[in-house]
Each structure stands twice: as C-alpha cells, then as structure tokens.
Amino acid sequence: MSAEEILVYAVELGKNFCLYFEELECDALCKEKTLHRVLRNVNSQLLVVRPDLNVAAFEDVTDQEMQSGKGMLFSIHCYKTTTPLAGLPVAFTVQVENKSYYMCCERECGKMIVRFKEGEVPKEISGESNFIFFKKTFTPCCSQAFKFEYSMEQGMFLAFEEEGYLRKLILKKLSEDEVDETMKISLCKFSQNENHNL
Questions:
Q1: Tens digits of per-residue pLDDT, 8-38?
Q2: What is the pLDDT of residues 112-159, one digit of tens each?
Q3: CA dist., res. 56 & res. 118, Å (int)
Q4: ∠ CA(88), CA(94), CA(97), 5° rounding?
C-alpha cells in the first residue's frame, strides 16, 4: 500500500478562519445510510414501479398487494455532503422480481423524464449525477412530508401528474414561493404486518 503526496497551496484565510486552497476538487458525496420506506402522495397512494411497463405511478394498493411489496419498498440512500444548504442528497432504488432499479432523470424530446434503470447506486459520487435528489421539508409547518428537488436542475421536483387513470411520477417546475400538493411526499415505514394505513 503506497501513499501519494499532494502538494497544495493555501490561497487565503477566510471568515471564521476557514483556509481556502487552490486547485482542489470539492468533496465527493459519500453514502452515509440507507432507509427502507414506501413513498405516499397527498392522496395516501403508494408509489409503485413497474419496469416491465416502464411506468412509476402513485396507486391505491390493497393489503394483499402491500404485503407482496413488489415495486413499492424503496431504499433511500442518504449521502454526506459539504453543502447541506441544498438539502440532503438522496438516491432511490427499488427491488422488483429480484432485480434492483435506480431512479434517474433523462432529457427526452426536450422534456425531463423520470426513469428506473436496472442497477445500483454507487457509494461515492465525485461529480454531477442524474440520480441524486435533494430532500427538503415540504413546508416549514409540515415537517413530516417532503419534496425532492432534482440535483441537476434547480426548481425541478418529483411530483405526480394525472394521465388517464394513472398518477404518473414526473419532474415538475416550481417557483420558490409556490406550494404544490402534487410534490408532497411522505416517507412511511414498511412492515409485512402493517395494514395499508401506515
């Protein structure tokens, strides 16, 4: 095992005696912990991922469906960051038929689309990533619900949009002082023995 020496040059001593260096990259995001939760919208519907149909939507779920947990139990990977003002960086994965899928966003025909791709999220992220969202309190008086801002496009949040009988998971633009109930997401613990009112 060898150690590598890195020569750095101090540039200035800032406020609160913070020392700033030249030519250093900012810290990478490092996975800190993983939570296992179901995601509920304002209508108490669960987010269900169906990779075979390329769909993720909030649905009314029966007790029997809930016990199977297929496509509903999310792993929420929380990352450490040096810039906590943006919110807690998180990534979402879900198990469906013994395969793991991660949530990401891609541009398609000029519009940002939420997708679930087969694979895992890394333990460390050194640059920008299309699967990181910033977890923020929904409103100051509603600390038990959250909104999730896409890390690569400020002001774009996970939300749902009615499309026929579906309430599809989408990214939606939000102005700073606006409150949009379609973006309100609750993270609920999941247990095989719980009924559907978590």
A1: 555 555 544 555 555 444 556 788 899 999 9
A2: 999 999 999 988 887 789 999 999 999 888 778 999 999 999 999 999
A3: 14
A4: 170
Whether 117 contacts 92, CB under 8 Å: no
Q: How far apart are CA 151 and CA 174, in angstroms?
A: 14
At a CB cut-off of 8 Å and minimum separation 6, what does 46 contact? 38, 39, 40, 58, 59, 61, 66, 72
CA dist 157 → 80, 171, 193 (Å):
21, 5, 32
Token look-up 């991922």 returns 49
Counting other chains too, the contacts that 154-159 makes at CB distance below 8 Å and 24 or more residues apart are 156/112, 157/183, 158/114, 158/133, 158/183, 158/185, 159/183
